[in-house]
Task: inverse folding
């Protein structure tokens, strides 16, 4: 049931959640995904506080758990939600797409957790590792090759950024390798891709290397 017609004063737990969450930069598509997950109402337009107030208790509790308490779950969904919000904050007024399938020049169709479009063209893709050991050199090379394949394909003409996020860190060799591969492309403006790595530490994503 929507609570949009109810007063917002008081010290209820959900009221506290709304007052806290309204200060977070939560993109609309995150609210929509959480509302869907929790079978919650969500008003289509309005200020962030009004949209939060329209959500049910389960949705507000989940948002608080993901973005305020920074809990982890076994499937890595919470970490991905935080990564998606981080990517969204980097690309204002762009179209954010989740679980995109993008064919590369090799003919392989790559499933991309988050992609960014501007004027109908892909400009960035992102992937986040949420569990296990730190990202290895092999994983860094695999990410590079995937983005390179998309860049060379029919849909990669405007692709200029590949963002590799991690909730479990990077080993030193992975960072060095991806940085070298990124720099090697900058000599050719037509083929340039900036590969960025972002680590989730102290409850925030921040770029580790560019």
Result:
């Amino acid at each position: 049931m929507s609570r949009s017609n109810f007063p917002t004063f008081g010290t209820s737990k959900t009221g506290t959640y709304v007052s806290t969450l309204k200060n977070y930069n939560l993109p609309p598509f995150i609210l929509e995904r959480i509302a869907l997950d929790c079978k919650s109402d969500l008003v289509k337009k309005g200020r962030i506080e009004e949209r939060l107030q329209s959500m049910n208790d389960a949705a507000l509790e989940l948002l608080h758990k993901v973005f305020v308490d920074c809990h982890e779950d076994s499937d890595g969904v919470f970490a991905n939600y935080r990564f998606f919000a981080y990517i969204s904050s980097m690309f204002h007024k762009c179209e954010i797409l989740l679980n995109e399938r993008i064919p590369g020049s090799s003919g392989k169709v790559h499933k991309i957790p988050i992609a960014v479009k501007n004027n109908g063209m892909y400009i960035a893709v992102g992937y986040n590792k949420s569990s296990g050991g730190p990202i290895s050199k092999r994983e860094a090379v695999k990410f590079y090759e995937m983005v390179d394949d998309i860049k060379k394909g029919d849909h990669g003409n405007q692709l200029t950024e590949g963002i590799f996020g991690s909730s479990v860190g990077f080993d030193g060799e992975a960072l060095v390798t991806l940085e070298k591969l990124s720099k090697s492309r900058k000599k050719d403006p037509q083929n340039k891709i900036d590969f960025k790595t972002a680590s989730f530490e102290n409850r925030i994503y921040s770029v580790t290397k560019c």
